Amino acid sequence: MFMLRRILLPVGAVFALFFSALWLLSWMNPLWVTKSAVTFVRAQVETEVRERAAAYDDAFLAGKAQRLLEAYGGEIAAAKRYLSDNLSAQIDTVVAQVQSGTMPAAEPEAADGHFSVLTRMTNKLRALVYEKYVSVTGKLLREFRIFTGMNAAIFIVFSVMMGVRRDKVKALLVPAFLMLPTVALTGYFYLFGQNWLHTLLYNHYVGYACLAWNGVIFLFLVDIFINKARVTECIVGMLKECVSGLLPG
């Protein structure tokens, strides 16, 4: 048990520091999180902008120009086609400006005050892209902080328990085993597919599943600390009996 404790204690401490550092970094430098997920953010923004645009009529982009449809109908149609075909470029422009620390620049009207449908539609579209960018990154940061914060707390408690409850190392193997999927999943996605990790975090059902999973781990830790692992050892004993009953002879 001594060797097992010497292995689990530093491992728990390392992951506690890892998730704590990510959680703190998301508050100290939130732009780092959004930049690391720029591909996902851009794709999500484009999806939501297209859905929003499809839900509105011509007044969505045209605004006041809609009232002059008879005079500017051809210009409006041409401008809408242009913006639809160049939506990706407009999104790239806005995302690049925001991530560089500047607000999206509006296209100026003509010096003579000439009514420009394309200019007004471009500015409305950029405003919508910015609105969706703020919404997407806000949700992403929230889910990222919940995910890293929960895991930091779990690993901190586990490490403290490993130091305090030296007589319950065997029981602590249960929460340690339950923590393995989180470690494996996080490690894989951070090394090989960051955007997949952010996609998972952005879906609420995954966040709820992580919360429930960590809740189970926390209950085991509470039992080990307060109840001297009575429930944990009982569950382990029942599992052993079930396994023994399934094995031949």
From TrEMBL:
Alphabetical UniProt keywords: Membrane, Transmembrane, Transmembrane helix
TM ranges: 7-25, 144-164, 171-193, 205-226
Protein name: Uncharacterized protein
Source organism of this protein record: Enterobacillus tribolii
Record lineage: Bacteria, Pseudomonadati, Pseudomonadota, Gammaproteobacteria, Enterobacterales
